[in-house]
Amino acid sequence: MAIKNDGSSQGENFEQFKVSGAELKSKIENIIKEGNARKIIVKNEADQVIAEFPLTVGAIGVVLAPVLAAVGALAALVTNCTIIVEKR
User: Fold this and answer.
1) Where are the beta strands (DSSP E) in 1-88?
2) Run of H or E including 10
3) pLDDT per residue as tens, the chain (88 positions)
4) What is the rounded CA–CA span in Å between residue 50 and residue 41?
5) Model pTM greater than 0.70?
6) Domain chopping of the chain, boundaries
């Protein structure tokens, strides 16, 4: 499920996705492949930030490998979470 904001109220453009732990890594991989994300924030069911990943313009796979490894570890720890994507 995606919740979108046009950024008019906060000055930022973001999208939120509710996913299970099993879907977390594949969803973040897809977001990174889209190429228009500035930052990814992962929150648990209690709405606490458990991870925050800034993404730079032109980041390559070698740079993103540690991020994806961390996301894989998080997926094992959470059952449901929210992904917040700050767009460019």
Assistant:
1) 2-5, 13-20, 37-43, 49-54, 80-87
2) none
3) 555 554 444 556 999 999 998 899 899 889 888 888 889 999 999 999 998 988 875 555 556 677 778 888 877 778 899 999 998 7
4) 8
5) yes
6) 2-87
